[in-house]
Amino acid sequence: MSQTLIPATILTGFLGSGKTTLLKRILHEAHGQKIAVIENEFGEENIDNDILVEESKEQIVQMSNGCICCTIREDLRATLSDLAAKKRKGELDFDRIVIETTGLADPGPVAQTFFMDDEIAESYLLDSILTLVDAKHADTQLDERQEARRQVGFADRMFLSKTDLTPAAEVDALIHRLKHMNPRAPIEKAHFGEVAIKDVLDLKGFNLNAKLEIDPEFLSADEHDHDHHHGHDHDHDHEHDEHCDHPHHHAHDDDVKSFVFRSDRAFNPAKLEDFLGAMVNIYGPRMLRYKGVLQVTGFDRKVIFQGVHQLMGSDVGPKWAEGEARTSKMVFIGIELPRDIFLQGLEQCLV
């Protein structure tokens, strides 16, 4: 039976960052879209669900034990399954779901639920992970809590709240820090949850599409520091870009880091598959998000791969455009990943 998949958004963020405010806004603003919300029951920003249901005619599903995190992933699975069944039978009417996690949740297991469970995968399409960052307290939270750093690493888009209460120089330093942890997620400032719906829904963060946005500032910062030759006057025909731990950047050496691999040479598909498979087997739990748009020998089309932890998918994408530089680009975001092993290994997979 073919049916349209229900888009799902995971809303995560630091305690006090304004997730609830943003969620209320989405519910009230999404004109013509009916949204089912799965939210955690407790936490310092509990939604008064009487008001919520009454005001926006939404069906709110609350977990009996309050929390959607790894240990209780079964609950999330059961809730999603139940919602999809009710929608099919016409008992509930909604177009999409938003899962609000607790401030301390690791988004990884929540995201994996959409890929690992066949029944869920047949009903839902995970659209994106949104992370709210409280600009005022972010440095402390990032320093002290790995869950906060994971939420940044997993994000498809980040929203900074409380920037009006934070000195501009601190906000700039924070943005710099976040970009080095995750150069693929755009960062926007959000005042009191005022965010355009188009910036929240249908972001296609998990689609195998041929776009790999890497923040240009992330790449240019590395050029200055590493004196790499970019452009076409290659002394060597691949480059490695990575953030630097130079003290003038920031004093934080976060365990969530990112690095980029680029090459103008094509990959050998068998070697690449073996290598990535081995890396995912060993480092999967520490690999948060990774994606590549690749030139692979024997294909006249782009090859696209992406993954979350141990779950990796790939597909053949559009043809390389006439005159387009056939450069492979990959970005890896993870916890203490051995950058050199990855970069050297990838290089050995080139033709």
UniProtKB/TrEMBL annotation:
It comes from the Bacteria. Gene3D superfamilies: CobW-like, C-terminal domain, P-loop containing nucleotide triphosphate hydrolases. Residues 222-249 are annotated as: Disordered. It catalyses: GTP + H2O = GDP + phosphate + H(+). Transmembrane segments: none annotated. It holds the Pfam family cobW. Residues 256-350 form the CobW C-terminal domain. InterPro entries: CobW-likC_sf, CobW-like_C, CobW/HypB/UreG_nucleotide-bd, P-loop_NTPase, Zinc-reg_GTPase_activator. GO terms for cellular component: cytoplasm. GO terms for molecular function: hydrolase activity; nucleotide binding. Keywords: Chaperone, Hydrolase, Nucleotide-binding. Zinc chaperone that directly transfers zinc cofactor to target proteins, thereby activating them. Zinc is transferred from the CXCC motif in the GTPase domain to the zinc binding site in target proteins in a process requiring GTP hydrolysis. Belongs to the SIMIBI class G3E GTPase family. ZNG1 subfamily. This is G3E family GTPase. It comes from Rivibacter subsaxonicus.
